[in-house]
Amino acid sequence: MKLFAQIGHGLGDKVAQGLAENIIDGAIFSPKDLQYSTMRSRILDLRDQYPNAEVLIDPQFYLSLYAGSPLINLGKADEWSSFKIYRKSDLELMETIDTVLNEYFNEISAMNVTGVIAPSIYISQSFDSREAVIAKNFIRRARKVYSGGLPLYASLIVCREALQDQREFEEFLNDITLLTHPPDGFYVIIGSRATEARSDIYHADVIANWMMLNHSLKVNDFKVINGYSDILTPFLGVAGGYAGATGWWSNLRTFSMDRFFPSGGGRPPIIRYLSKILLNRITVSEKDAIKKFIPEIINGLPHDADYNPEPNRNAEVLQSWEALKSLCNEADTLKKCIELVESARNAYARWDEIGLPLDSKSDDSHVEPMVEGLRLYKERSQLS
Amino acid sequence: MINKPDINLLKKELPDVQIDHEIGAGGFKVVYKVLIHGKPEALKLVQIPEDPNEEGVKEENRKRIYREIGILKKCESPYLVKLGSIELADLLIGGQGYVMYSEEFLPGNSLRQLLQSGFKPAFNELRGLATALFKAVIEVASKQVIHRDIKPDNIIKTGMNERPFVLLDFGVAFQIGGSNLTRDTLRVPGTLHYIAPEMLETGFRQNLDYRADLYAIGLTLYEYASGINPYAFRNDAPFNTLYRIKTTTPESLSSKRTDLPKEFCSLVDDLMKKLPALRPANISMMIKKMEAIS
């Protein structure tokens, strides 16, 4: 499973360093966060220095339907001449979809990317909706419109609620796995109601069906790149995914449309340490307090050394990528994933016995959904 | 078949056709081996379904049979049975209407006959069967038709090098976008033990695609390889069989035939998945993968 950097604002040299250390395999740029010209030159630099890196751009066309809102923060996304405001009724017309695709493909041809992610809209409620029909038409038309020679990924950007309606989800899956003009793969994003809502993504049905989506697409010879997959990346890899992605801010680890609306402000997030055995990030003080009781909390990887004392944001994301990459390499079967979650459950049980308090984001609330999610995935995908 | 024609009346209607013997019968049809100018062919008589409560249904179904046989006439795959010298025609025997046409008569045995003899095919034969059926489905699907009745009874092992297996019987084939065989939308066409799970959904015709045929190919390969249809139990009520088709996962083929390559068994298992989206649908890719198995 490949791991990509999910790029947001504050790019710095993190991605270059991650690529240099082979702890990431590529990057997904975000038009909202970088000026068009800056992005172009950064991509050129990366491709020049790291020729094996895979470099993609998330078109973020899903902002189009929200662009009329006075509160929306489009950032630099509307610097792209192909970015326009549309209404759903416009996009119900196939000719409009073709126009959107065509204009975007023309514009991205100037970027030195290694693959092209086709634009699409966000399915914000259900697979049985106008939005889902429009999204399906974007998927159906992408290959027909694209005439370039790069791998083409259709976008599937969908809210986690849609994954919870099993019947609608399966019908949608049946449709997108049988296409007259199939793309080479899919760029999949599962959206949460809020970036900080851990239980939105760490939910058994969401985990199971995100994995099932990867499995079904892989069975049908599609490459699946999962955006914002963060700690679920190894599981998605076992299910058949090609790559996952995560970044340095919480809104680059979990996708939510609230990323594009003003936040309530507040201080920057606390620096955290991704512990492989916990399958979670904990605060530095928690790590330091518990490591003498449960030494396995520490990954034993090179970037652990950055945490003495508390590192900066750059080092934090490198540690995250390093831990995730290591987890991806270890978790090569579903059985191994189940063992990893069992280890997390046991480690949390030991922590509980010691009686040290945990921050709400550091607790074990993700473990049971993972256990159940893996079980449901196995059952729904009929795996032996 | 309920209203099978009187053989003597049939012979009288078709004086140039030498009727040898009946070789099969189904819900709406009967098949005879015949000789036409000394050449063997399979003569098929299909009774046109009608609805006594609704005028026009019979004519609609008659047109549908004509249309689908017309499509098959255009199929060129060697792995599909070819039409014979008797063109589609209406026939009235003893007051009962039929549609009549002939197909080539194929030598050899059906896979059902081979299964009944206790025959266990080797991997190369199974690979040949899979490839032939995949290519047949590619051709049929390209005409927007779904066979819907792929099973060991409808496949002949011919002994011919160039077409070792041939798929027969398009009696319940489904034209995507076409009308139903009958107006009874609750009736599921096909053979109970080989019905794809999605065909048991209400309104399945809206979403049916060639993956229903891939499911039946998987099940046929499983049965031909192992001698077991995992959904067919002796003296079982149809409801129980349908329930199992919808809900139970058969043991992997690899547990029944440890001598077969794992990749082959895994592909067969995948073809039998309940949800069409979980079945591999890229047939050309499957043929390539099959060829690569050593």
Question: How would you describe what is shown here?
Answer:
- The complex is a heterodimer of chains A (about 375) and B (about 290).
- Chain A has about 375 residues and is of the alpha/beta class.
- Chain A folds into 2 domains: about 1-260, TIM Barrel, CATH 3.20.20; about 270-380, no CATH class.
- Chain A contains 13 helices and 11 strands.
- Chain A has helices at about 15-20, 35-50, 90, 95-110, 130-145, 165-175, 200, 205-220, 235-240, 285-290, 315-330, 335-355, 365-380; strands at about 1-5, 25-30, 55, 115, 120-125, 150-160, 185-190, 225, 245, 270-275, 280-285.
- In chain A, strands 1, 2, 3, 4, 5, 6, 7, 8 and 9 form a 9-stranded parallel β-sheet that branches. Chain A has a two-stranded antiparallel sheet with strand order 10-11.
- In chain A, helix 9 (about 235-240) links the parallel strand 8 and strand 9.
- The model of chain A has no long low-confidence stretch (mean pLDDT about 95).
- Chain B is an alpha+beta fold and about 290 residues long.
- Chain B folds into 2 domains: about 5-105, Phosphorylase Kinase, domain 1, CATH 3.30.200.20; about 110-290, Transferase(Phosphotransferase), domain 1, CATH 1.10.510.
- Chain B is about 35% helix and about 20% strand.
- Chain B contains 9 helices and 10 strands.
- In chain B, a hairpin with a 2-residue loop joins strand 2 and strand 3 (about 40-45).
- Chain B starts with 6 loop residues before the first helix and ends with a helix.
- Classes of the chains: A alpha/beta (about 375), B alpha+beta (about 290).
- The interface of A and B includes residues 171, 216, 219 and 380 of A.
